Amino acid sequence: MGVGSDRFRGFSGRDGLRLLLCVGGAWGGCFALLSLVVPSLLQPTTTQAISLSLIRQALQLEGKPASRSHSRALRIWAAAAPPPLSQPTHNQQAAALQRSLRNEGLTGELRREPPNQRNWLGGYWLSVNDRFWVYANPGTALPWFWPAIRIGSLLLGGSSGVALFLQWQLQRPIQRVLKQLPAIPSGELELVPEGGMAAMRELSIRINRVLEQLNQQHESRRRFLQGLAHDLGSPLTRLSMRVERLEDQPNRPAVMSEALPQLRVEIDRLMSLTHLLQEAAGEQIEPFRPRLSALDELCERVAASYPQQPIELAVPRLLVRLDQSLIERALQNLIDNAIRYGRAPIRLAAHQQKSTVILQVEDSGSGLSSANLLGMPRIAPADDRQQRQRSGVGLTIVERCCQLHGGRLALQRSALGGLQAELHLPVS
Prior knowledge:
By secondary structure, the protein is α+β, with helices and mostly antiparallel strands.
């Protein structure tokens, strides 16, 4: 059953072949075991039956009436020499047979035929009148012997084969799954083995789908909370600096009137991030609520949150369906990186290219020295400390924002000389 199959088809053809293999192997083993054990357990009975069969055949050859009627055909070797492959015998069963034959007046030579393909247990030849040999074995002496062996081996082998199949294809896979699943889950969950019969494989596949989804949710929540913690740092730092400025100049109303709107912007941003935390705690996932938004107004709000560092704007009037809060977070992280690691001027621009809107944040710094500038700098070279600094949580937040919108993040060298970060967002 494939991993992508959503419909359970029950017992599969492969499971049927495995069941037949188990039942067939168990039947063969039981047949061999019963064929060896039963004759040993029934040795007195088989010895008496073989003796009676040899006596009946010998009396028929001599023209004497047999003590018991029997309708089975005779097996006779008409020659003075012993039958081929027969051997002299001296075991306990042969001794018991000879005593029984002498009691009936039969003193001819008794020879043993070893087991062969036609007769697994072998048989006995008795010389009659030095000219004929008559034959008997457990199968001919006891007509019910081999049918009983077959029926017994079929019943015992069938039940043993089914038990073996369930142990192989059901119980052991369940034990492996239980061994893999932790009693108290913590951190990333490992997938369970997928095996066993069709029902067990389907159960393992669906358990793995749930585990993969839980791992993805755990990673998304971890990155989301890490990003929010990162985002809280910048407005808190700016608030602290502006409060210190007010404390240094408490008697200047002009400074107060200029700082209050800036403080209100930073407080609103902190309240927005707090609201995101509350939503994430309630929904267990990162909230994503796109709506039709004016891109120029959104970018103006972002630029207005940096009064100490003027941001050049080149954003046309575009209506785009996006999550305003996430885009603002992404742009603020890119601008924070440009202020921290680049130089002024810093430009925020946007343009539409077919069905994609491209948002650009570029600075006039030294850019990145890595050759992999166009790729997402997840793992920077060991000697590229600048790239390691600029590829931390901030760019991870931006990349996550692009992924939620179905877009991507691209890094290029800016025409201003520094880094140019581009958010490629589809127009829906």
